[in-house]
Amino acid sequence: MPKATTGAQVLEREPTKEEMIAEWKRSMDEGVDPFIVIPNGWDTPEDARRKAGNEMIWEAKKIRAQADAEKNAIEKQRLKDKADDLAASGRKRGGVISREIDQELARNIVANERILDARMAWLDAQKKGDEAGKKQAEQDAREARKMGGTIPNCDTEEMKRMVGNQMILSAKILWAEAHKEHDPANKEKAEKLAAKGRAMGGTITLQDDLADAQRMVANEMIWGAKQIWADPKQANGDANQAVASAAYAREHMSGTITIDHSIEEAERVVVDNRSHTPSKYGNSKGRAWNGVFNKAEWENHAQFFYDTDRKAGGDKWANDNLFLAELILYGSPKEAEWAKNNINKITKSSGGKGGQGNADYWRNKIVEEAKYWVGKIPYCRDTKISTMVLDKEKWPPYMDCSDFTSSVYKTILDIEIGQTTRDQKDRGVEKTYAELTQGDLILFDWDHDDVPDHVGIYISDGDFIHEVGNNTNSGNLSNTKENVKIENLNDSWGPKYGALKNNIYKIIRIIQDNNNVINIRKNGEKPLPGYEPQQDQAVQKVESEGRNITDEDYNGVNDSTLGKKVETTAELANLEEKDILARTIFGECCSGEEDFGQESVAWTIINRKMSGAHGSTYKEVVLARGQYAAVTGAASDTGLARDPLKSSGNLSAWKKAVYIAGLMLDGKTNEIPNRIGSGMYFRTSRWFEPALNPNYVRIVNGNQYQLYADKKWNNIKDIQTFGDNTYFNYGTK
After folding, report:
1. Are strands 524-527 and 681-684 parallel, antiparallel or unpaired?
2. 404 with 388: CB under 8 angstroms?
3. Comparing C-alpha atoms, which of 152, 120, 116 is closest to residue 134?
4. Which of 61, 235, 377, 414 could form a disulfide linkage to 239, CB 3.0–4.6 angstroms apart?
5. How many other β-carbons are positioned within 10 Å of the β-carbon of residue 155?
6. How far is it, in rounded angstroms, from Cα 672 to Cα 476?
7. Global pTM?
8. Across 278-298, average pLDDT
9. Which residues on neighbouring strands pair with residue 517, listed in sequence order?
10. How far apart are CA 419 and CA 441, in angstroms?
11. What is the pLDDT of residues 529-585, one digit of tens each?
């Protein structure tokens, strides 16, 4: 039978990739195995066959998904048979997408290969002076990104590297499947595919296990999707599927780059994952950084713990901290977060009544106060402003760096740490870079003349907050960049300064681990104010009688810029903090009036923020994975967060949620009634009954409640039942 003819051949032009694949499929239906080279100017025949086979396998996976959703038994079986036949044909033609790769990853692999093909076709067209060919290649690339491809508009070698790493990952998955099925032919195919991937620049090595390879590819997918999302023209104005691919990489492939990482931070994670650079303090396994917390800062901490632990006789405190620091650097995201939350709990001594918790509480209050003023106080070097108690109702007209740091400490602790940087360098106790903790003063020497000329307050993970700028005219403060801002010590201000941390003059700790403050020259100590945590409790138990919030308070609230419908969790995370907070409170408890449900949800968020559990800002707390279903969890609740007004029609309750969110962000939590004490978690009261839910709730020793979570029974404490929910904390009662 004669070979089928494409429409392109009739028109005497070079056929497109889609036309060639269609011809291949027609030929196979006719029992012919044609020899096809997809015309992108660089494929070998073997590459072309493999890609066409992958397209067929992906198509088969889509058909199989249709079969799974089909209710008619006859049609279901017909679709299954069609999918199986198509997948078998794709593998016979060289396709290497294995059964272990699901539809979402298969789509990404196919789309990314199309993007690389489009780039090669573009280069070929450019060489020939073919403008129409270049435009077609650009359109092909946009369409591939629109369908879920995550290779951004980067250089060709970078594109090849990303496709190469996906080929190596596919090879590892295929090899594992072949090993399990005792299939030497597919093992050989996997090894050839991996070699091809490395020849294209892939950086995943033979020593990387499957989990490491998967994480590296996932982070490359997320990094690429971030760039496509930032410039949706790359995907024909619709970057949603690229974002969905990133979400898949995060949720199913252990990607560690989060929504909150900037594109630059994401790129640093990708580059570091590829380099396999061993840690300087003895990471003998050469493990790749997980990208969760700041690498440079935690390697410095790890070095300090490592050096301390190696001293004669060892040091259990350092050894324990080193273990946690390594989890922070190299563990899974969940392990890293757990270690970060626990590392400050390991102390050398109790440091007096209440332990270090008292110091940590006030350090957190200092940082919380400083963060409130981000973007609110213009910078100006002017001697008319001095240390003051900061008033959220009446903002200072301007400040310089030392005005700001001294005023934050004055506001929270009513102490004087000095008006200038030269004063502040002689207060407190000097610490090393490795010992940095939140609330510490960081003094900088830009001219390297041994005289400090700038100061900020350390937050965590390399971030610090400072009043910064060059204004000297208090009558002209229009530049919004000259203001209170958060930056990272690894950031650079250009060749003159290099990384900001290279300009550190001194680190000063005002709040000491022994629960004292040193705020005057020499050695003047005084105890911190009265917060004392309970021995078994890391969170402050805040009680607020608070007047009832009524419709008179919230009916006039301005919510005109809030509550718009959004489609994805990525869009949701990009909303302003007040909007996200209100959606969470409303979504978890949309009822209003005086039942205190919204107030109680709000207090769980406040208590978590104060404890440091799940984040140090309200936004971090509510967006922590698996916590508040209204913004991150169950499908039935997610609609409330993405479209709060239309989902319920309860406009009054929505306005109340907006009002409560505003009180929280303005620091007026004392105006929110607290009926749950220090509770940070809640379940429906019916779920909480042991008789109704014996698999997850029980009582032991007569009065100790326990919940089953993380494959074990956990003691819980501070139990408060109110309305339809029961609020509690984990720990020993």
Report:
1. unpaired
2. no
3. 120
4. 235
5. 9
6. 39
7. 0.42
8. 66
9. 511, 526
10. 13
11. 754 333 333 333 334 455 678 888 888 888 888 988 887 777 888 889 999 999 888
Q: Which tokens is 210 given?
A: 């499957």
Element (H, E) at 430: strand 429-431
Per-residue pLDDT of 351-380, as tens digits, reads: 333 334 478 778 888 998 998 898 899 999
Which amino acid makes up residue 266? A
- 489 near 467, Cβ under 8 Å? no
At the top level of CATH, which class does the domain 357-527 belong to? alpha beta
How many whole angstroms separate alpha carbon 63 and alpha carbon 248? Answer: 20
Instruction: Report in angstroms the alpha-carbon separations of 284 from 278, 287, 348, 359, 434.
Output: 7, 8, 27, 36, 21
Pair of tokens at residue 530? 């009265």
Residues contacting residue 640 through CB under 8 Å, at least 6 positions apart: 583, 586, 587, 590, 630, 647, 648
Reduce the secondary structure of 109-136 to three states and give it as a string: HHHHHHHHHHHHHHHHHHHHCCHHHHHH
CB atoms within 10 A of CB 681: 19
Which distant-in-sequence residues (6+ apart) come within 8 Å of 285 by Cβ? none
DSSP 475-519: T----TTSBEEEEETT-B--TTT-BGGGGEEEEEESB-TTSEEEE
Instruction: Please enumerate in sequence order all residues whose Cβ is within 8 A of that of 185, keeping only pairs 6 or more positions apart, or say none.
Output: 178
Domain boundaries along the sequence of the chain: 281-343, 357-527, 534-679, 680-733
**Residue (of 438, 440, 483, 493) closest to 460 by Cα position:** 438
DSSP state of 500: G
Distance CA 566, CA 423 (A): 50
Interaxial angle between packed helices 240-252 and 103-128, expressed in degrees from 0 to 180 and rounded to the nearest 10: 130
91: which 2 tokens? 């593998």
Determine the average pLDDT of the residues in 84-107: 88
Pick the closest to residue 540 from 375, 666, 354 (CA basis): 354
Are 641 and 635 within 8 A, CB to CB?
A: no
What mean pLDDT is reported for the chain? 79
Residue 689 to residues 74, 552, 719: CA-CA distances in angstroms? 46, 37, 13
As a whole number of angstroms, the distance between CA 127 and CA 133 comes to 11
Distance of CA 63 to the CA centre of its chain: 34
